[in-house]
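User: Can you write out an input/output pair for a complex, sequences first and structure second?

Assistant: Here is one pair. Inputs:
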Amino acid sequence: MRLIESIREMTAWSKEQVREGRTVGFVPTMGYLHEGHLTLMRRAREACDRVVVSIFVNPLQFGAGEDYEEYPRDLTRDSRLAESAGVDVLFAPAVREMYPKGYHTFVDVERLTEGLCGASRPGHFRGVTTVVCKLFNIVRPDVAYFGQKDAQQLAIIRRMTEDLNLPVSVVGVPIVREADGLAMSSRNVYLSPEERQAALVLSKALARARDLVESGERDAARLRQTITETITAEPLAAIDYVSIVDNRFIQPVDTLAGDCLIALAVRIGKTRLIDNMVVEV
Amino acid sequence: MRLIESIREMTAWSKEQVREGRTVGFVPTMGYLHEGHLTLMRRAREACDRVVVSIFVNPLQFGAGEDYEEYPRDLTRDSRLAESAGVDVLFAPAVREMYPKGYHTFVDVERLTEGLCGASRPGHFRGVTTVVCKLFNIVRPDVAYFGQKDAQQLAIIRRMTEDLNLPVSVVGVPIVREADGLAMSSRNVYLSPEERQAALVLSKALARARDLVESGERDAARLRQTITETITAEPLAAIDYVSIVDNRFIQPVDTLAGDCLIALAVRIGKTRLIDNMVVEV
């Protein structure tokens, strides 16, 4: 596995793959890799001639007072894990390499970014779309893999890719969970043992909603109420949002129809966790 | 010469050029071609294996009350002219092809877009950068050619291309003028014979400023004053702006140093014309 830190070197590598007619699969990450990321890498490994993983803790997608500084980083461990998943190139640029002095360009997706995480993290998705657009141009993948865990992010990246005519197939991969149901996240390391237990309330609330949907419930307000009640029963949990939206434009729905997304963000102590479930009715 | 109207067909063509290792030169235009555009096409023809010209009157870069509806259009004439310049593909998508229902993504360049035309045409450059980003992704050129006539636009597109790591060389081509000095523009057709004569005041004012710079003047305020006096002496002319900025970040300068841009926008009757001059001191 090759470690590349400069854009120039990464671009040269990408150009060579195009010239040689090789397909490139790409997994953009912020590092501190877990089984969720590794699943994306394996998917890329199966489908593509070459696999690139980027590790970049993107300052642009963190707001003031968020955890940019504390976000866990361990490039040595990440390198080992990526190599074990059959990755060909680990692209790990410095911040100044991605945003040099005089940097002034931003990519915005409107409407889809307004609610859910966009409401509580203003500017977050602008940071995400800008860095993903840059990474797509640098790595030039044929296919890019994103976790369904960040469902709103996935819808926004699909939208951007289609709107800007980026020649990349965006593939969403189902959430990978711990044995007890907790969605995998690099931020799970922030949790104390007690909080780790309390964090199960997210997947538990979603499971209850799924049961209701399966027994015929289509009313978004009643589903939200069940989820809210489940979460508020946990003393360590504080709801940021519980939203039911269409899965394409991320707009609130009153009644479930077509592809809907039930998404939640909950603070467990100081740690903000998200989880979601797509329901097709 | 091939006329392509669908993005799918254009993308397939571009992909084939990449596969065959052919270089592509690209000239994005709003059509109603004049000698300025043809000069760009000839430059592309000399340097590249294939030449693509796009014709798209981009609604996104026109403000409310601007001339989107009246903007001159003549695809038959444009096709003939492009073919005579050795163009291989004319890409002329419909508005709904470029901005389908549910379109939500925009590219913004900050700071460089604030002054000059950005101040009097809010949203204009957002429209320009968004459409150029899309066109670059669809056409996948190695080199793209832009007229120096739209100097601020050129600086903004250079900035966007560098910031978003778009794999395109952006080439600026000097202003092409009529024999009497008027910078070529598709909007010159709006001018009555009397206005056409009055419009010479733009290039005349710039010529006076050049004389002053050549005789050692470096003070931006005094240069602006000379330009302003020259233009206001013309009864049909009304100044929109007279600006002296650095040519990279388009920020006002007090004293000429390095690469500076002297740029002006003037209304002649109802027609807004721009002209400029780059001075290297």
